[in-house]
Fold these 4 entries.
Entry 1:
Amino acid sequence: MAHQSDGSATLSQLLAEYAETETALSDPAVHADQSTARRLGRRFAQLAPVVTASRELERVRADAATARELAGEDASFAAEAEELENRIPELEDRLRELLIPKDPNDVKDVILEIKAGEGGDESALFAGDLLRMYLRYAERQGWQTEILDDEETDLGGHKSVTVAVRSRSVEQPVWSRLKYEGGVHRVQRVPVTESQGRIHTSAAGVLVLPEAEEVEVEIDPNDLRIDVYRSSGPGGQSVNTTDSAVRITHVPTGTVVSMQNEKSQLQNREAALRVLRARLLAHAQEQADQDASDARRSQVRTVDRSERVRTYNFAENRIADHRVNFKAYNLDQVLDGALDDVIDALTRADIEAALSSDAGPASGA
C-alpha cells in the first residue's frame, strides 16, 4: 500500500497540520465544497488521536515533574510522582504507535468484489456466504452498503458480486477495517449438492479496493471503449429486453468493468465508472509501492492476493487466518458478521511489524 508523505511527518508537523485543518473546517466557505469538507473532516479525525495522546503525555510529564519537586518538601507527594512517572512509558508507547506512517487509504470507503473460484456451484454458494458475512459486518458497524453488480446462479449462489461500502461517520472508516480481507478464502464443508456426505474444499476470491474520488483519478473519455448489451440472469436467461448492461474498457491499461445490475444503462455506466476509478487508483498505488524503495511493507500489507488467506471449516466450526496464525471456533458467529476479532489480530500484526522496524522514542518523533 502506498503511504503519503504525512505518514513519516514529525510530531510537530502533525500538530501543526491538525491546527491548520481545524481552522479550515471552521471556515463556512470550505463546507460549500462537500468533497473538500469530507476530505478535511476525515484527516482531522485521523489526526485527533495523535494530538490527544501528545497532550496527555505532556500533561503527565509536567505533573510528574511538579510532584517530584514538591516531594522534596513534602514526602506525601513522592507516591504521586512515582505513579505519574510509571505512566510515562505507556503513554510514550501509545504515541509511538500512533506515529507509525499511516495508510492514506484508511479514511476511504471501499469497493468489495467477491468472485466464485474453483468448485462450481459450491464455490458460488460460498461466495454468497461471504457476501452475507460482509453485509452483516457492515450493518454492525453502521456502514451503508450498495450492491453495484451481482451475477447469481440457479442455486442462489453468486458467480460474482460487487458491493460499495460507505461509512456514515469519519470516526468509522471502512478501508482501515476491510483492507485485510483481500485474497483467496477457502471453505471446507459438505456441499448441499453432495449426496455421499463427503467434505469438499472450494474457494472464492475477495478483492478490496479503496473507492476513489473523481478528483483522484481523472479518466479521459477518449481512453474508454463503452459497449452495451442485454443483461442476463441465472443460467444465462435473458432478464432484460433492452441493452442496459454496460462494459467499459480502459484502453491504456486494458482494465475491463462490466455492470448489469440496474435496469438503466446510465446507472450501470455510473456504477462501472466507480469501480473503474477504484481499480485504476489501486493500480497506481501498487505501482508507487513498487517504485518506492523506502515504502513500509509489513507481512500483512504485502500478502500476495493469490495466496490463501483464510479457511472456514464448517465441520469444526473453525475459522483460521493463515497470515497471523489466528484460529477461533465460532465460525457460525463470524459468518453472521462477528469479524472484529480476526480483523483486530491482523491490525495488531500490522502495527507490530511497523513498530519493529521503527526506532527512537516518541518524544523525539
Entry 2:
Amino acid sequence: MQRQSNIELLRIISILMIVIHHVLVHGIYNAVNNSTLHFIDSFVIYGVNIFLLISGYFTINLKWKSVINLFWICSFWKLFHLFYETYIVKVPHSLFEWIAKPLAIPFSSGGWFVDIYILLLLLSPALNMALTRMNKKELSLTILLISIFNIVYCWGVGRENNTSGYSLYHFVYMYCIGFYLKSSSFSYKYPYFGIVICSIFTFILYLVLGGRAFSYNSPFVIIGAICIFTALNKVNIQSRIINITAQSVLSIYLLSDGGLFSKNMYQLYNEIIKTSANTVVGNLKIAGIVFGICIFAILLDRIRIIIFKKGIYPFSEYISYKYYHKIYHK
C-alpha cells in the first residue's frame, strides 16, 4: 500500500514541532525566558497530539514486524547514545549496560512518549475492537465522557496526579478522536483560522496560567492539533522524498531527546544564546544545528533500516517459523 504523502508530511511536521518545543523548553528558555519565545511555542506545542491523531485515524495494526521494528529503533538509538557517552564524552559504561539497556526497551525506552506509546500499541487490538463496534452516537458519547475526565477533571480542575497529558488515558483519548475523524469524515471548514486562534488563546492562557497552558490535554492544544490534521488531510500530494524522510521521524526524536547527547545540545543552545550578538543570530545558529542533527538522524537511520530489513526481521521470521513448526509438528 502506497503511503499518503500528505500524512507523511504531517508526521514530519509533528516531529519538527516536538523538536522545536524541546529546544525552547530545555535549551533557550534557560538563557532567555521571554514572551516572544512562548508565543512561538504556542504554535508548535501540537506535535505529540498530531502524532496520536494519525495513529487513531489509521488505527494501529499490531503486527509482529511493526513491534520488532519499534523495539529495534529504540535499541539502535540506545546503542548510539551508549557509544556517544562512552567514546565521545568519556563516560564509562559497563558491559552489562551495553547489553541490558538496548534489551530493556519494553520497560524503559529512554523517553516518556515512547514508553506510553508502547502501552498504546499493546492496547490497540482491544481498543480497535471496541471502537469499531460503536455506532456514531456511541462513539460521540464516549469521546464526550473522556473529554470531561481528561480536559475538565484532569487539566481544568487538576484533580488527577498527571494533569498535563503525559498519560496513557490522554493517548487513548487522542487515539479515539483520530478514529472519530476517520469514521465520521469530520473536518473543520477553516482549519488555518482555527490554528491561529488556538495558538493565540494558548499564549493568552500562558500569560494567565503559566506553563500549564502548554499541557497536551489543554482544550486549545487538542483543538489546534485537530485543525492542523484537518488542514493537511485535505492536501493531495505524492512525494517519494517525503515518504522516505517520514520513516525516520521517530529516530529524529530519539536522537535529539535522549541521553547525554541531548543534554549537551541543550547546554550548547543555552551558550549560543548567551554569547551571540543578538537573539536573531543566536536562533539562526541553533536552527542550523537542529537541522544538521535531523539530517544526521535521517542518514544514520538508513543504516538502521538496512540492518532491520536484511538481518533482524529475516532472523525473527526464521525463529518464528522454527518455533511454530516445532509446536505444530510434534
Entry 3:
Amino acid sequence: MKFQNESNARQAEPGTATAPSAHGRWYADACAASFAFELIGERWSMHVMRELMLGARRFSDIRAALPGISAKVLTERLARLEELGVLIRRKLPPPAASQVYELSEWGYMAEPFMQELGRWSVRSPLHDPTLPLTSVSAMLSLRTMLDPAKAAGLAARIGFDFGADRFIAELAHGKLAIRRAEDLAGVDALFRAPAAGAILPLFYGKRDPDEVAATTGLSIHGDRDAALRFAAVFSLPPKIAPPDDTAMR
C-alpha cells in the first residue's frame, strides 16, 4: 500500500507527464497477462487492432469491416487505443488529405500474441468457421496457420482479390509477407472471391477446388498448380476432444 501511495504521489506531481490509467482498473493484479487484458480487453479493441495489422485505415474502412460496432463505440475504442500508445492517428498528404489510424511500433508487436491466441482457440470444437470473416482476418490467418515444414523450399507470389480488398502474399524461405495492393499484376496466381471466407474450405478444409468454386464463388487465375501448392502449406491445429457430457452430470 505504501508503494502504491508513493507511486500515485509521484504521478500527481505538477508538470510531470502521467500515463493514462490502465493497470488495476479491472483487476487488482500485478500479472502482466492481466494487464494485457486491461489494455486491449474491452469489447472490439482487438478487432480494431486486427483490422490495422496490414496497414493504416480510415475510420470508414474500419467501420465497414466491423458492421457490428457503432460509430460511437469505434470512436471510443480508437481514442482509448491512441491514449494507450497502441495506435497513432495521422493525416494523409494531399490530394487524399484524409485522416487514418495505424498501429504504433508497439501495437504491431501484438500480432504474435494474437496468433498464439488464434492457434489456441481454433482447437476448440465450438469454433464456427462459417461465421463472417473480414479480409484482413483471412490474410492474418494465413500468417498464423502457415506450416513451416510444408512451406520449406517453396517460393510464391500470390494475389487475393476480394472486391474492395486486394492483397499480395509473398512466400519465401519459410516466411510469409502480406501487404495490401491495388495492382495485382505480376503474381504467380490469383484467388478471386466475393468474400474472404471463400478461401477457408480450400486452404483449411482441403476440399476439392472445383467443389469450393461451385459453393463459394472462389476462382483461381494464372498458374493453377502454383495456387494449389500455396494453399496446401496451411493447416489448422488438431481439435481437442469434445467435453464428456457425462462428466458434467
Entry 4:
Amino acid sequence: MRRVVGHGDRRRRARRRRVVWTGGELLVTVGLVLMLLVVHQLWWTNREAKQGAERKVEALEREWGESGGSTDSGNAGNSGSGAKGGSGATGSSSSSRSGTGRQQTSYTTRVVASQAYAILIIPRLGLRVPIAEGVSKPDVLNHGYVGHYPGTQQPGQAGNFALAGHRNTHGEPFRYLPRLKRKDTIEVETRSATYTYVVDQILPQTSSRDSGVVQAVPRSIVKPSYGYKEPGYYITLTTCTPEFTSRYRMAVWGKLVSMRPRA
C-alpha cells in the first residue's frame, strides 16, 4: 500500500534540510574565521613586527652615526639600578673590573620606558634586534623587540643584564634560542660601546615564576644546580618554552668578555 505523504511531512523535512544547511554554513564560516585568525597571529604579526624591528635597528644605527658615537647626557645614575616606568639615567662613567680580570667601563646610557636604546646581536641565530626598556607585551615585546627587565643591570655593568623576548608570534626574536651553545657570542651595541658576552650556561626549562634567573647573581630557585654563586658581569636571555606555549621558561646565561668603544 502506497504511503501518503502529507504537506506537514514535507514541511518538516524541508525545515530539517534548512537547519542542516544553515548549520553547515555556520561551521564553514567559523572555520574560515579561525583560519584567518591563525594566519594573522602566526604570519601577519610576525611580518609586521619583524619589519618594524628592522626599521628601528636602522634608525638607531643612523642616529648613533650622526652623533659620532658620543655618550648620552652626562647625568649618570646609580650603578646597579635600572629605570622603572619612566625616564631615568643609569650607568656610570667609572671603570670597573670584570670577572675575567679585564678592565671594563660602564658608559652613561639614558633609558626611557618602552623605548629602544640598544641592539642585541646573536651571530649563530642571525639575529639583530632592538632592545627596549621594559617587558610589557603591548608596549615592547609585541613590537618584535627584546625587552630589558627593569631593575636589572645595563650593558657592561656588574650584575645581570636580563632580557626577554617572544619565542612565537610578534617577530619571535627568540624562536631559535635553544640552538645556542656554550661559547657562542652575544653582542650588545649601545650608543657608546659594543659589549661582547659568551654563552656559559643554558637552563632548558624552569617555572615561569623562577625569579632567580634574573637576579644580580643569576641562579635558578627551582633548579639550583643551574646558575652562579659569585658576582660577575652576566647577561640573561629568557623566553617561553616549549614552542607555542607559555607554561615554562628557558634561560641562557653569558659572561662579559670585552667592551669596545664606538669610534
